[in-house]
Amino acid sequence: MARATMIPTLLVLLLVVCCATTVVQGKEWVVGDNKGWSFGVSGWESGKDIQSGDVLGENSKDQVGEGDYNSCRVSGPSRTYTSGNDHIQLARGGKAFFICSLPGHCQQGMKIAVTS
């Protein structure tokens, strides 16, 4: 008898979970807005409500650790994006650091630090 009521109960529970679940789609940000990934992009991220799951659309760059971001050098592990049309989904919580590794570019402001 318990088995006869268990299946409908599980179906109702499954329906409730499916209805209560919301689909979250991140916003796509174009880094640097209409200026793009260029000199002086540093600070572009300030004042923006960038959330985990959001996507950064950018041109070529290296994703680095905080130390490499601060020193404008790629010395540790990094991930290089070179397609010129990269879309990077941000992980939940924490910071992501991006620099241009071409000589002198990071020092001239081609870097951003994004908190999601």
From TrEMBL:
Phytocyanin domain segment(s): 27-116
Name of protein: Phytocyanin domain-containing protein
Signal sequence, start to end: 1-26
Phylogenetic placement of the source organism: Eukaryota, Viridiplantae, Streptophyta, Embryophyta, Tracheophyta
GO MF annotation: an example: electron transfer activity
Organism name: Triticum aestivum
Transmembrane segments: none
Taxonomic superkingdom: Eukaryota
Keyword annotations: Copper, Metal-binding, Signal
Cellular-component GO terms for this entry: plasma membrane
Gene3D superfamilies: Cupredoxins - blue copper proteins (2.60.40.420)
